[in-house]
Amino acid sequence: MPRPKSSNPRTRVTNIRLTEEERSEFMKAASACGFDSISEYVRHLHFRNQSSPPPGTNNDFKKKFPAKTVRKFYEAEYGKILWGDSRAYALNIAEPASVDLIVTSPPFGLVRKKSYGNEDADKYCDWFRPFAEGFHRILKDSGSLVVDIGGAWVPGQPTRSLYHFKLLVMLVEEFGFHLCQEHYWWNPSKLPTPAEWVNIRRVRVKDAVNSIWWLSKTPFPKANNKRILQPYSKSMESLLKNGYKAKLRPSGHDISTKFNRDNGGSVPPNLLAVANTESNGSYQAHCRNENIPIHPARFPSQLPEYFIRFLTNPGDLVVDPFGGSCVTGVVAENLKRRWVCVEMSEEYLLGAKGRFVPQLQPLLRDSKMSYQIPAPCSQTVDENEIKLFEDGGRKRPTKRSKEKIDSASQENDA
After folding, report:
1. N or C: which end of the chain has fewer CB within 10 A?
2. CB 180 within 8 A of CB 137
3. How far apart are CA 124 and CA 169, in angstroms?
4. Which of 85, 100, 122, 148 is flagged as catalytic?
5. What three-state secondary structure class fits 279?
6. 86, 100, 106, 144: which is the annotated catalytic residue?
7. 233 given a catalytic annotation
8. What is the pLDDT of residues 92-127, one digit of tens each?
């Protein structure tokens, strides 16, 4: 299949004079970062070190994303799907200070390109700036911005990109948002990736957590954690039933008699355990019946449900600027919140209609499902038999050593 023509081809060549020693050092550095050439490595360094857009760029955002690029695609009782660029919606269509909650999962800054159009990790903050400006414009002072964002790996080495942390710092320091609290989404069903460093070289563990940044325009957005209580543990139920003697704990916490009070449930931690395993719902059936591509990066409905219940009231306006298959919209519709989902891909929107037609897809009701995390080092191993990789995984295992690793992996999985 021929390579598609670029809209911005690289037709200019620049020569850099280097000594043989300098060239060798550049090639080593490029190879260590997963690049095949010095030019790719230099381009990587250039974009990584660009910390801010050219002066005056922000003033051009409204002109660059006109309202005419967005049109209505579908309307439900409480909300609507818009087809187009959400930057145009946030900068030119939505009323200022009109939105109570923006909850979304933007394309992640990945090294490998995915079918749903992710962005380059090194350029991510520059790409996100017009969105950030629009979000700040339309969000109420009492509203919240919730961003689910996964991490990425540095090309060719077992180290992590900092792009999602840089995004957080940019939103706070450059756009004036406040970090209310970070949350983490643990997906128990996630496969052990990246395979190269987890399964083959065995120098990293499974990457199963997404960061969720909860931000706001002021330090005091509206919220109430009594909306999202979880069931008490068996030990807490026993304590409530049999009583608890008030005393000072070794940690220094003074546990009073109020600890015996039944508040209807316990306050959840900021670790959200939700398996992303839905594969046979009405959305998938609609897509298969209509021969429509299924969105490959959907987040589970329990994530937007958690934040919508926690941070909004019925009738409030919820916006998802990266609507995808409109998971946020169908949750908001069920919870009687006004909502807007904006998405650029018509294919994904054709599939999203299956969440509303012929009938509204109900919320999942397996919310009482819980997941167990084994205690660290709970599997007994012989350290004399299991040696450390002294090179840190720099070299791939030989075929013989890989067979030993695979055998050990099968034993552990069993």
Report:
1. N
2. no
3. 13
4. 148
5. coil
6. 106
7. no
8. 999 999 999 999 999 887 544 444 344 566 688 999
- 32/62 same-domain check: no
Reported as a single tens digit per residue, the pLDDT across 17-45 is: 889 888 888 888 877 666 678 887 787 67
Q: Helical H runs in 206-341?
A: 234-242, 282-289, 302-311, 327-334
Both tokens of residue 1? Answer: 């299949």
Tokens of 78: 């409480």
Residue 157: inside a domain: yes
Q: Show the tokens assigned to 304.
A: 């937007």
Give rounded-to-5 percent helix, strand, coil for the chain: 35, 15, 50
Residues 159 and 28 in one domain: no
Range of the domain at 36: 21-50
Q: CB neighbours of 57 closer than 8 A, spacing ≥ 6?
A: 129
Residue the block writes with tokens 């989404």: 185
Hey, what amino acid is at 275? A
The yes-or-no answer on residue 148 being catalytic is yes
Predicted TM-score of the model (pTM): 0.78
Residue 110 structure tokens: 């990945």
From the list 105, 144, 161, 301, the catalytic residue is 105
For 281-319, b/e burial (b = at least 16 CB within 10 A) is ebbbebbeeeebeebebbbbbbbbbbbbebbbeeebbbb
Whether residue 98 is contained in a domain is answered as yes
Domain boundary residue among 355, 376, 396? 355
Q: How many domains does the chain have?
A: 2
Of 355, 382, 405, the residue at which a domain comes to its end is 355
> Is 366 annotated as catalytic?
no
